[in-house]
Automatic annotation (TrEMBL):
Transmembrane helix found in the keyword field: no
The protein's name: Endonuclease
Xref: InterPro entries: Endonuclease-I, His-Me_finger_sf
MF annotations from Gene Ontology: endonuclease activity
UniProt lineage: Bacteria, Bacillati, Actinomycetota, Actinomycetes, Kitasatosporales
Alphabetical UniProt keywords: Endonuclease, Hydrolase, Nuclease, Signal
Cross-referenced Pfam families: Endonuclease_1
Secretion signal span: 1-35
Region feature (Disordered): 150-177
């Protein structure tokens, strides 16, 4: 009668199990579900594709800094094109409220729409001069009174309901846009942070986690903006707007509309 030694049996079983694992569980490399590809990846973005972190931010800065600047007066007519209501070509769609309003009602009176700086002018003191003050990638048509309510506040969740902008909320130092505009705001703010890096006549604009930034060249809160970017993906309206700004006015693109996953890749 043969005898099976327990120690030898255990060693043989362990070796067999290791062999089976190596055969049945190969390494798997998957592309993240959020990754996107665009027609511009092999041309406009070719020097950025495949990079992450500061390398990606630097590459995108170089790419989007090649830009035609327009005057603040020219912004009026540009917004009538970039923010045109797809359902009514005589109107613009207003940020924060989604209201469709006649293009002719641009001005400073109650019932008018005006030029909202999503990156507040005071956060870096760039005013309305050609450059960050006239960059269409963060300028939007907005109801005069709603624009006044937003003021130069940072971005965060919560507060009291904003009159004239259902779904938007505000408190003493922050503003929360309605859900349909959350991603738009996030991608505009982070575009500005990449475009303006302090290597020209303007301040180095950066996101941070503060909601009391005042006049320093920062806008918060980054964690909330990242959430909004995920929560509200780029819409057809945003994509069309990006194309119009690129093809007709400035010659540069907002990379976070084309590649929203680059927000997480950088920050």
């Amino acid at each position: 009668m043969s005898v099976v030694r327990i120690g030898s049996w255990k060693a043989w079983a362990a070796a067999l199990a290791a062999t089976l694992v190596s055969v049945t569980l190969p390494a798997i490399t998957a592309t993240p579900a959020s990754a996107t590809t665009t027609a511009y990846d092999s041309t406009y973005y070719k020097n950025a594709v495949g990079k992450t972190g500061t390398s990606l931010k630097s590459a995108l800065h170089t790419i989007i800094s090649s830009q035609t600047k327009i005057s603040y007066d020219a912004v009026w007519n540009a917004l009538k094109v970039t923010d045109q209501d797809p359902a009514n070509t005589n109107n613009v769609t207003l940020l924060y409220s989604g209201v469709s309003r006649s293009k002719s009602l641009n001005g400073g009176d109650v019932g008018d729409w005006n030029r909202e700086h999503v990156w507040a002018q005071s956060h870096g003191s760039f005013g309305t001069s050609a450059g960050p003050g006239t960059d269409l990638h963060h300028l939007r048509a907005c109801d005069v009174q709603v624009n006044s309510t937003r003021g130069n506040k940072d971005w965060d969740n919560g507060g009291s309901a904003v009159s004239g902008a259902p779904g938007s909320y505000t408190d003493s130092n922050s503003f929360e846009p309605r859900n349909a505009d959350k991603g738009d705001v996030a991608r505009m703010i982070l575009y500005m942070a990449v475009r303006y890096e302090g290597d020209d006549a303007w301040a180095d604009l950066e996101p941070n986690e503060s909601s009391t930034n005042g006049s320093v060249p920062f806008h918060g809160r980054l964690a909330i903006l990242k959430q909004w970017n995920e929560q509200d993906p780029p819409s057809a309206f945003e994509e069309r707007r990006n194309d119009v700004i690129y093809n007709t006015y400035q010659g540069n693109r907002n990379p976070f509309i084309d590649h929203p996953e680059w927000v997480e890749a950088i920050w």
